[in-house]
Amino acid sequence: MLKGMLFTFGLLIGVITQAQECPQLTYPINGATEVPVNPTITWNSVNGIFGYLISLGTTPGGTDILNQRSAGLTNSFTPEVGLPDGIPIYVTISMFLENQQLLVCQVEVFTTVEVTTPPTCTSLSDPPNNATGINVDTAIRWNYAPTATGYRITIGTTVGGSEVIDDFDVGNVLEYRPQEEFPLDQDIYVTIIPYNDIGSASSCTPERFTTGVPTVDCSLNAPLNDIPDIVGICAENLPTVVTNEALASGFRWFQIEADGSETLLSESREVALEDIGRYRSEAYNNVNEFGSTVECSSSKEFRVVFSNPPTINSVQVIRQATGIRITIEASGGGDYEYALDFENGPYQDSPVFENVPDGERMVFVRDKFGCGTAQRTVERELTAKNFPLFFTPNGDGINDFWQFVPLGGSGEINVEKIFIFDRYGVLLAQIDPTSQGWNGNSNGQPLPESDYWYRAISFSNKEIKGHFTLKR
């Protein structure tokens, strides 16, 4: 009774026309009955418009089936999942006109056939049956089964298997994406059962597709892990932050226990360490293939030791034919490297620098693990402060020798030659700046108390003169 009343009302509306030319249904024509539930709805073409919209409903002007779906400039439309059976379907065509508001045309109506049988089986459209190399995150799509009002889907990795999805009702749609990714390199079997109010399709055959085979070469995609074999942490500044500079998607740091087990410390580029022992650094890149993520990692085990800032004990300077030779003696218990003139280097492992030009130099000693840098000036200007004002060579073990004195207890010897004269300019002795010094004798004989003069020459040929007193 209700269906008949709606149909009659639809016919009355169908005779109302708009002043503006509107298209009319050509299939199904207005008032048609027993229309299949999967029709291609067509209407006559209208010139000079910019596009059509179509709405479908179960009431006059309703949009509960389709709400202003664009048909472009095509004067036809096929509902993707069909239409309800045995009821009037109201059709509203709207048109886009130049410089005008949307023109909504008169409502037309047709009645679908009463379905009395279950739907037939459908088939996969994407991926198609027997497809290979499919992404593991793919969506399953299938073709519309005429008269179907819903679908149940079963997915497994064997024929008849259901471990992925088991007889799941997805409703009246033609696509489903499982929540979990499919496994790589695996046959996937899909069974889709259409149904309607009468019943379900029977004897539907499973279809199959195969996910992709991973081909990622991790030897080409793993990051370069350049963590050294030994990492020093500063005993005076704990914890010490260690950084992995590799270009990578992610990082992991582990502490290796005495029994070989590992404890995860960090999953960032940096880790704060305060204990010596064995550790492992892991850097990895994520590579996407077939919709799955493959992790390519590189791992490096290293040992953590305590380190300390350096102390420069002395700097020895020796003149050679091709320049001066600088030897740095440093202590502190760390692993050190050495640079000349510039704090930022370049640094070298050897504490010896050969063929260095004359002149004032600055030497740097740096802990390789970042625990500090020491520096010292080499070849300072000679001053009278480098030479004692008197000495007492009386054999009591105190001030028995006269010699060049490095300033500040640095041990730096920046003088190459020292000559000693009497008041008349007679050369009495030449002493080696690295020896004990002058004992107050000349030709094996002790000289009397008096003032004596010296002339000292540096490695850079700078000269200084002065005098001192010999006391007995």
TrEMBL record:
InterPro entries: Ig-like_fold, T9SS_type_B
Keyword Transport assigned: no
Alphabetically ordered keywords of this record: Signal
Secretion signal, residue range per the UniProt entry: 1-19
Keyword Signal carried by entry: yes
Gene3D superfamilies: Immunoglobulins
Pfam families cross-referenced by the UniProt entry: CHU_C
Domain of life assignment: Bacteria
Name of the protein described by the UniProt record: T9SS type B sorting domain-containing protein
